């Protein structure tokens, strides 16, 4: 994606944190980074979580307060615990014939969701993706790279001591691998590498409040057109991502980006 953006004339900056969005007269004038660099543009699209964008980054206190009041009535989504697995064989050879599996131990989805939130990781729902089936270059030949994701509560991880956090992380990792072994027997013997990400990881590396991987909770009251629109109260500041309409997930985020781009083109014209 970065290479294609560069081909189209864009500049891509890594390891750069936005500290402020300057607003003047109802318009965004510039974006300022943590090193003091200032980038000006006629339109700004923010894929930063909507809460930080609209209550912390923009320097208009009146608009900040208005959005803070709105967000106080909205519920954040659940967080996640994810394993990144490197196998010494192809996952196909172990029986994973599709690149994506959704595993539900019971027909009652509410029960499966409860198991996740109650920490019953040996018997919980999870999603498994074999990235190597989607792109063989993501793992050495004959090997595979997988990710396993299940739901988790941020509050269950937030206040743990460093030692307790490490022990709990290891415990959940082992429980999930044991759970996975039920559906792809023998996979645990072929794991060369494992990395775990907790709700605190989601909060830290993706700058998600409370590790909310889906933005606002995908409840009926907060779904589809009830989510934030791409347009904001600042005329040339647009939003994209899971916090906005049409909703969360890969496809929802892609659509939000297309809609934000369409709105940006209209503003530029």
Summarize model confidence as the mean pLDDT: 95
Query: How does the helix and strand content classify structurally?
Result: alpha+beta
Spans of at least 5 consecutive residues whose pLDDT stays below 50 are none
| Approximate strand percentage | 15-25%
From the 3D structure, determine the CATH topology of the largest domain.
Polyamine Oxidase, Chain A, domain 2
What is the string of SSEs from the N terminus onward? HEEEEHHEEHEHEHHEHEH
Radius of gyration: 21 Å
Please indicate the count of domains: 2
**Termini gap:** 26 Å
Oligomer: single chain
**CATH architecture descriptor name of the largest domain:** Alpha-Beta Complex
| Secondary structure: helix percent | 25-40%
Determine and state the CATH class of the largest domain: Alpha Beta
Strand order of the largest sheet: 6-7-8-5-9
Describe the largest sheet: 5 strands, antiparallel
Account of the protein in words:
- With 269 residues, the protein is an alpha+beta fold.
- The chain has two domains: 125 residues, FAD/NAD(P)-binding domain; 127 residues, Polyamine Oxidase, Chain A, domain 2 (Alpha-Beta Complex), CATH 3.90.660.
- Helices cover 34% and strands 21% of the residues.
- The chain has nine helices and ten strands.
- Helix 2 packs antiparallel against helix 3.
- The radius of gyration is 21 Å and the shape is globular.
